[in-house]
User: Fold this.
Amino acid sequence: MELHVKKIKNGTVIDHINQGYSLDVLSILNITGKEKHVVSVAMNVPSKDIGRKDIVKIEDWELKPRDVDKIALIAPHATINIIRNYNVVDKKKVNLPKILKGTIKCNNPSCISNSREPIESMFHVKDDISLSIRCHFCGRIMEKDDVLNQF
Amino acid sequence: MNFDGRDIVSIKDFSKAELERIMSVSDLMEPLSREGSDILKGKIMATLFFEPSTRTRISFESAMLRLGGNYIGFAEPKLTSVEKGENLVDTVRVVENYANLIILRHPLEGAARLASEYVNIPIINAGSGAEEHPTQALLDLYTIKREMGKIDRLTIALIGDLRYGRTVHSLAYALSLFDVKLYLISPDLLKMRKEVLEEINGKIEVFQETDLKKVLPKLDVIYMTRIQKERFPDLKDYELVKGSYRLSRDDLKFVKRKTIVMHPLPRVDEITFDVDDTHHARYFKQAFYGLLVRMSLLSLILGGIK
Assistant:
């Protein structure tokens, strides 16, 4: 396949992002484009596995493990490659756990998890592909757009 | 089927057989509600009401006294350490040292679930924000059963504030375990919550409507609710929908002879006073059945009845 974006020397490549969600992935990672990293985005790239996909390459920046769940929320098929000196030193597929703790807030302002209690937010993942998660405490169901609104 | 030491957080935690067991024990409570008993002698119930309540709290307290137990607690968080900034978890962890069970009402959703995960004594959810009010649903079911002789094969309408009204959320979950047709009648702004619809759709026939008058002749049970002004984030929205549905004596000309009218109370203007002395009205009877159901729950959970 034709290479749409050149190889990077050091940094992170997030591949197999669902078509149209690359900018949301950057937003979730709090990458605005105003940082010093070179960021390349490829959209609507043909993919054998998921039809069309987006790819994001961020140079001289490595994804932190706690951000992996965040990506899984909106890009359930994504693969993450950590690159050092042109070599892939770590490659993993994101995997949304059955129970999600602390990653995002419940969007119900009246949920007890948003009050001054000694607890982390907690969600049960009902559907990890189209994304549907249920708050453990108040039962509110959140979907992809509700999650994206938090970033 | 074991209720001993069990929490009641959500009506969804019950099977149909368990709901029927609670109702059959409620029947046994009727004579005790008049004569009193000592089956819970020495037991203490803590009523922690972080949000105002009249009938639910008094009904629980009366139920405990009728069973020979006693109660402690507060009805007004302003007079307690909660006002000083204490959180819910700390409050219930202290109170569990003083009581055998906690009845909790709280303005936030999920409060009862959280409390139940931190203490070792049973928690009964007496209303968690706009989320659920499981003991109200139990007494509503029991009222339908006592007054109609059955729950299966009835056509029931929940009317009014289906978004913020916690009693209708719990009742819809409970009714989904029976063979009923359920009409959900509300203004568009106050439609039933998505999470409730997802749970009940497919289990029973559900129809969403805005026009009450159109469906009145089909109904066996008319369950009116108050528009929950205090839960609207924007009072402008409340102004748009207040007084959306009003049931009057004239409307009852169009209902079946045996149709009953229920309301969790308090009412504002959803049922006009001229309905009160018709043979359809059951909302004051509901309050009596509430006492029996709460006696039943306390007896089952605290081991007064095996």
DSSP finds three helices and nine strands in chain A. Chain A has a mean pLDDT of 90. The two ends of chain A are 33 Å apart (CA to CA). Helices of chain A lie at 22-28, 68-74, 144-148.
